[in-house]
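Dissemination and training. As part of the outreach component of the grant, students in the summer workshop were shown how a complex can be specified as a set of sequence lines and then modelled as a single object. The example used during the hands-on session is reproduced here so that future cohorts can follow it. Participants entered these lines:
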Amino acid sequence: KQEVTQIPAALSVPEGENLVLNCSFTDSAIYNLQWFRQDPGKGLTSLLLIQSSQREQTSGRLNASLDKSSGRSTLYIAASQPGDSATYLCAVGGGGSYIPTFGRGTSLIVHP
Amino acid sequence: DAGVIQSPRHEVTEMGQEVTLRCKPISGHNSLFWYRQTMMRGLELLIYFNNNVPIDDSGMPEDRFSAKMPNASFSTLKIQPSEPRDSAVYFCASSLRLAGVETQYFGPGTRLLVL
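and obtained this result:
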């Protein structure tokens, strides 16, 4: 059974810092990996999707990388802003269909 | 498109009552997922439909939970009878697999409190 772990569970940084969120998974036979953002009291919003054949995806200040062999993905946030404060979840899809396994998330606070 | 629509947004009920949660996926999407999120257990997949057919319901906690998808534009998740431990946020998500890419889109969730 796929297990997804996100470290750290919580992170507080000053505005402007570059930061890295980590996601690790136990079964490397994945279909894809998706990073989501969840604001308090809201649903999940997709940030980046990396297919198993890809190594990274970029969107604005966000860059996600994937290393299947080591079972790891990182989400890099450049020049963090208070508006980046949210919980970030990674979801790993595996097998013949996309049934994702979610991590518990990293709760990020960016203070001015 | 309005995105994934869920109703009600909030539900407070008493133990033993029947609860029905509703979801309208994004038009054209062929996969639908029901999730439950709690502080203790995080986000859990309850059931997954593809082309209106339940593919994986191994996450459904017990017989008190049932889900249906009578057509491509509507799904329900029913809890009967409800219990306090069912209190959680229930999310519906839909997706479309296109050229090997499949991105999930989540609804705003239904916050359920069972007293």
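Chain A touches chain B through 22 residues (CB under 8 Å). Students were then asked to discuss how this feature might be tested experimentally.
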